[in-house]
Amino acid sequence: MREIQMVDLNAQYEKIGHEIDGAIKSILLSTAFIKGPDVRLFENELQEYMGVKNVVSCANGTDALQLAMRVLNLKPGDEVITTDFTFIATVEVVALLGLKLVIVDPEPGTYNISAEAVRKAITPKTKVIVPVHLFGQCADMESLMDLAKKNKLFVIEDAAQATGADYLFKNGTYKKAGTIGHIGTTSFFPSKNLGCYGDGGALYTNDDDLAKKLRSIANHGMKIRYHYDDIGINSRLDTIQAAILRVKLKHLTEFNKARAAVAAKYDKAFSTCQFISVPQRVTYSSHIFHQYTIRVKNGKRDALKSFLESRKIPSMIYYPGPIHMQEAYGFLGYSENDFPVTTSLCKEVLSLPMHPEMEQEQIDYIISAILEFFKK
User: Fold this and answer.
1) Domains plus CATH for the chain?
2) CB atoms within 10 A of CB 371
3) Which residues are within 8 A (CB) of 132 and not within 5 positions of it... i.e. 6 or more apart?
4) Which one of 119, 237, 328, 360 is separated from 20 by 20 to 30 angstroms, measured CA to CA?
5) CA 123/CA 152 separation, integer angstroms
């Protein structure tokens, strides 16, 4: 049996390496390393896949979040509401821009931000809601967009973990995760469902004016070379990464279906285990399983993780500590028990190996080990 990885990029490269090699070689021969044709070609192809008018590529997912907030002309002290249960990038850009971070609990089953918690947190100073589509399933966007409309707020979707997920509206229409709010952001970190071989990111918007402004700010504030209309930054997706992403985008639907098949096998195996809660599904969103994250009950999470390590099965805790208890965010003034759902999740969640190249033998071995642990 092949060694089990959380994400097996070697196995993926073995399948599509000939395409990747050709894409990289074409850039090396062209020497168009910065803003080469493949960057715009990738943006155009991703626009078509996402069903959105504008894709603006950038250097990474954190820059994408920063660019999204900068383009909205927010002022220091403006409040931004987001979830306590997310990767730190979602909140650090809020602090860096001098905005006021307001965090709320997620829903315990989906791990996504609670629309009801957001509603209760809105004040006259609130300007932005940032839902995170955690682990590959969309947050309740229809409810969040209704709140935004009623309160004249912007919505920035952090869709870094949900590229390819579909959101189903009550009227029967679909949109891709990241294309529902005013701006969507994503990351192409190598482990993502659509990942490059370095850093990369992008923003989505149907607002042409916002797109022009985003392109300007991401390119030193230039709309025309050496004419600076905005105070900008240097945040570019390099051409080699764009070429790699063009290859991987062609396989994304296939990759996401393979992840779903693995998840279905996990679901079936753990459905009768009283110590495990499998990821909750919702009717309004597909799930593309950036992570397959279970909840382990009765304080057995850490023991299970150690047991799996002894069997050479990797697992990860996303995330081990609430944002509101991180030292860097002590200035927010929250106490440990202010967000009980997040605190509970941080003690119970465990992500299992999940990637499109998983073999049946590996899946059976992981399932068998987990069920053996709970029979002891």
Assistant:
1) 9-104+111-246 (3.40.640.10), 252-375 (3.90.1150.10)
2) 15
3) 82, 83, 86, 90, 112, 113, 139, 158, 160, 161
4) 360
5) 12
**Overall residue count recorded for the chain in this entry:** 376
Spatial CB neighbours of 225, under 8 Å, sequence gap ≥ 6: none
Amino acid at 65: L
Give the global pTM.
Answer: 0.97
| Structure tokens that stand for 347 in this block | 């003690």
Q: Identify which of 89, 336, 78 has the alpha carbon closest to the alpha carbon of residue 201.
A: 89
Q: Which residue has the higher pLDDT, 214 or 227?
A: 214
The two tokens of residue 358 are: 């998983």
Sequence letter at residue 10: N
Question: Could you give the strand order of the β-sheet that contains 79-83, starting from the edge strand earlier in sequence?
Answer: 54-58, 201-205, 183-187, 154-158, 126-130, 79-83, 100-104
Q: Is residue 376's pLDDT more than 80?
A: no
Residue 157 forms beta bridges with which residues? Answer: 184
pLDDT at 335: 92
**Over the stretch 37-70, which tens digit does the pLDDT of each residue have?**
999 999 999 999 999 999 999 999 999 999 999 9
303 vs 281: CA distance, rounded Å: 27
Q: What is the pLDDT of residues 13-28, one digit of tens each?
A: 999 999 999 999 999 9
Q: Are 94 and 85 in contact (CB under 8 A)?
A: no
Alpha-carbon radius of gyration of the chain: 21
Specify the 3-state DSSP secondary structure of 160.
Answer: coil
CB 298 within 8 A of CB 276: no
At residue 81, does pLDDT exceed 90? yes
CB–CB of 24/243 below 8 Å? yes
Task: Decide if 178 contacts 162 (C-beta within 8 A).
Answer: yes
Q: Is 340 exposed, middle or buried (0-12, 13-18, 19+ CB in 10 A)?
A: exposed
Reported as a single tens digit per residue, the pLDDT across 252-261 is 999 999 999 9
Q: Quick one: tokens of 15?
A: 């399948």
The residue ranges of DSSP E strands in the chain, in sequence order, are 54-58, 79-83, 100-104, 126-130, 154-158, 166-168, 174-176, 183-187, 201-205, 222-224, 227-228, 276-277, 292-296, 349-352
